[in-house]
Amino acid sequence: MKMTFLFQNQQYHAAPPNKLLFFISILALVVLPENLRANEKNENDATSPYYQKTANSAASTDPKATSSNLDKLPKQQTSDNDSDITLEKVTVEADSAYDPEYYADPYNKDYMLPNATAGTKTNTPVMETPLNVQVISKQVLKDQQVINLDQALKNVSGVTVSNGASVGGAGGGLDQSFFLRGFESQTFFRNGFRLQQGAASKGMANVESVEVLKGSAAGLYGLVDPGGMVNVITKQPLATPYYGFSQQFGSYDLYRTTIDATGPITKNKDLLYRMNMSYQNSGSFREFVGKEDVFLAPVLKWVISPKTQATFELEYNHQHLGLDNTFVPLANGNGTR
Question: What residue segments make up the domains of the chain, in order of their start?
């Protein structure tokens, strides 16, 4: 007798039933005794899970079970050296709100300022401002040794600064204008207030940060060029005394001295002051072109209440420099001009 199975167009022939039963019997004789010996070993081993399960079952169902059987169960090993361990106290602190005193600290070295006032005229986080605002912090200005505003604006994309009242430079370097997103503008703001044309060419001794708003801002500031606006934030008096001094040297006989002092006037810290001064003297790569600049910026702050303050600011800037109207000399063929 033969049985035939068809699979994937190939034929396989099964062995006769009597031979199949013979192989199954041989396999049972080899495997079953081994399993029986393993079960017998587990029943006699007190540490095996099988023995513990059997003993627990017998103790719970058989009322005649004695404690002698349970004594054979392994007991949990305990150490006499175990004792309670008390960990040291860990304190985690974080500021969820914006702290203006932290970012106004002269020792703060953060390159990023999370808040700006140019986009909303309020101290609003930049990430929540629906306008493109970029802020240059005081640490960036300090590390780059910035002297003029045009040097600070090099950190902002899409801004080009021109020293002169127009593209042709007819101002002789006295005024500054900038191109923001391709539009020329000479309008600068200081703490949100509009300055007269070219007034931003003053010193940077009392500048805390520089904010650049890209895009239309006429809804907040009135007549503003469509490219955007530049807002300069000045240093404010602090309740903690601070005194700073710096000296700079550069090419073409440049040397510049700055002094920064702030602190409380009264013991209750209702009156605060800040004084920023700078003196600069420099030459040029051309003869008879030099510059002497004296800058003073005193600030007095009266803290009437935690939510009411009055600030009085004064800026004095005296510049003595040669008018540098550039020109190209022309000469004809015989050497005359």
Answer: 101-234, 237-325
